[in-house]
């Protein structure tokens, strides 16, 4: 019985193929959210992509990616699929902080209503903006 519990715990810790990170530590769902590709986000979530998966190291989420680029419909889709608006990345930023850092007021409003709070002590200088641009295909 203990062996079964251990195997189940190990299986839960391993990402499924749909959640496999790429060389940048990003999942297909994170990249689709950053691009604002609502159809891909819906399709990946339907295939079991973890809407709350955090990238190794940076701990960014698909919701943070969508928020930063102001993709309000993708933000709503992810929230409807169970994305947690209160998760923090490695710098302590929430999805609302990511929306605010890029002056994406509409996305920020949706996130605030969902419970994402701004971090008043956040040092935005340590947020991985270059990684977000890579996620959206805007940087090499």
Topology:
Blueprint: H1 2-13, H2 28-35, H3 38-46, H4 62-68, H5 72-80, H6 95-101, H7 105-114, H8 129-135
Instruction: Provide the domain count.
Output: 1
The CATH level-2 architecture is identified as Alpha Horseshoe
How would you spell out the order of helices and strands? HHHHHHHH
Largest sheet: none
Roughly how many Å apart are the termini?
A: 49 Å
Query: What share of the residues lie within helices?
Result: 40-55%
Shape: globular
Number of strands: 0
- At the first level of CATH, the class is Mainly Alpha
Description of the structure:
- The chain has helices at residues 2-13, 28-35, 38-46, 62-68, 72-80, 95-101, 105-114, 129-135.
- With 140 residues, the chain is mainly alpha-helical.
- The longest helix has 12 residues, at 2-13.
- The protein has one domain (21-135): Ankyrin repeat-containing domain (Serine Threonine Protein Phosphatase 5, Tetratricopeptide repeat, Alpha Horseshoe), CATH 1.25.40.20.
- 49% of the residues lie in helices and 0% in strands.
In short:
This protein has helices at 2-13, 28-35, 38-46, 62-68, 72-80, 95-101, 105-114, 129-135. The protein is an all-alpha fold.
Describe this protein with a few key phrases.
single chain; 140 residues; mainly alpha; Serine Threonine Protein Phosphatase 5, Tetratricopeptide repeat; globular
